[in-house]
Amino acid sequence: MPAADVSPSAPDRSLPDPFGDGHDHEQVVFCQDPASGLRAIVAIHSTALGPGLGGTRFHPYASTADALRDVLALSRGMTYKAALAGLDLGGGKAVIIGDPRTEKTEPLLRAYGRFVQTLGGRYRTACDVGTFSEDMDLVARECDFVTGRTTAHGGAGDSSVLTALGVFQGMRAAAEAVWGEPTLAGRTVGVAGVGKVGRHLVRHLLEDGASVVVTDVHAPTVERVREEHPAVTVVGSTEEMVASRLDVYAPCALGDALTDEVAAVLSARIVCGAANNQLAHPGVGKVLEDRGILYAPDYCVNAGGLVQVADELEGFSFDRAHHRASRIFETTRSVLARAASDGVPPAVAADRVAERRIHEVGRLRGIWTP
Q1: CA distances from 35 to 111, 181, 237 (A)
Q2: Which residues lie within the region annotated Disordered (predicted)?
Q3: Is the pLDDT of residue 14 over 90?
Q4: Residue 98 is assigned to a structural domain of this protein
Q5: In the annotation, is 93 catalytic?
Q6: Label partner for 72 (CA 20 to 30 A): which of 17, 63, 281, 343?
């Protein structure tokens, strides 16, 4: 759908909300297959720039309402992420309701693939929290619109590698804005969540000369990182990490990591992490700004994984994808410069940059069809 016209001096706006109820999505599909136990929701936010691309999150949501809220927020974020990354793709996302450790099966994933196939390519799926490249191989046995597959099947493999690279590049740009040099050397960085992306981010930070503090709710994950990198410091909880002395805080788990309470006690000068939808509500960004904390917008810095799986659609080249993900440094730098020139928080500046591209480049019809 066409995006709102956002000029540099205009107030921040979201994409149009035709129903007036806070939802501006093109299409939301509920999927259910009792035989396999599949319960899923696919949300397509916008196809103004191209078909919606976004991962499949497998998570034990407390309710369908919680799952719906998450998929709506995540798919909308993908629209902005793809636009800011310069991709000719729209925003989509899917969630499967359940515990992937006990409920993920081949029949369920293949049933999910059949549902995605019915969308005719308007939504292209990939990995997310709770799903892996091997899962996408199973989905692809029933569906033509899958990326993020294993290298054995011609795919890009683990997209967390370039997601971490992009976050690191965004962090370098934030460090330059705050301390004048694009490096984390001599700084203390707290990484909350060291699973897929956080684990790779730790390596980049240590190689750059940072001191790294880590935490994760999954003890074996922490132990694996400690074994790989004995120099890291482990703390028992995110609350303990947030209350400690940090230069940079990197939320790399689930969303809503930045609440009013966190913003009030955080000592870090920079927040830059891989988690999606980090701000619990838009006002948190203003609180961070008022406290002199630079927030590098999540969908700006964590776009490396999207860049990687999008490259797979062209015939994957790791070198090409790596080069594109490295450009997140320049993208973040431009967003932070826009924030300074417009006198707005970085999250607002990032929205403006993304919305301008959607408005200027988006197809006049606004709806992508095969």
Answers
A1: 9, 57, 39
A2: 1-25
A3: no
A4: yes
A5: yes
A6: 343
